[in-house]
Specification:
Elements lengths: L1 H10 L4 H17 L3 H6 L5 E6 L3 E10 L5 E15 L6 E15 L4 E5 L11
Antiparallel strand pairs: 1-2, 1-5, 2-3, 3-4
Length: 126
Amino acid sequence: HEGGRMEAATAQGVTAQQIHEHLHDQRRVDQVVDDPLDLIKLSLDERILVKLRGARELRGKLHAYDQHLNMVLGDVEETVKVAEVDPETEEEVVRETKRKIDMLFVRGDGVILVAPPPRPTAPILQ
């Protein structure tokens, strides 16, 4: 079954090495992720996306975490979106502000979503 996918992928310009790496990474994730926190463990020292209550998003390097989803992030970009109503036109206007933070402690009770970094995939294998 994998042989047919390899031939089709190679015909589309995906190298055999890329396919091998994709299958290896997928098997590693499948074997290692038994608990939801295992997925976060695989993201240590990688850039992640954290969505928080209050329309806040953080993108930064995950340095540490615990079972409550308290996290320490480095080289963080915070994005805050605020919806306001223009009093003259009565239209909703979404304002976005961004700031850089060197190191940040994130309290886990405000975390809505944690997205690990995207893993490279071979298009034919999806």
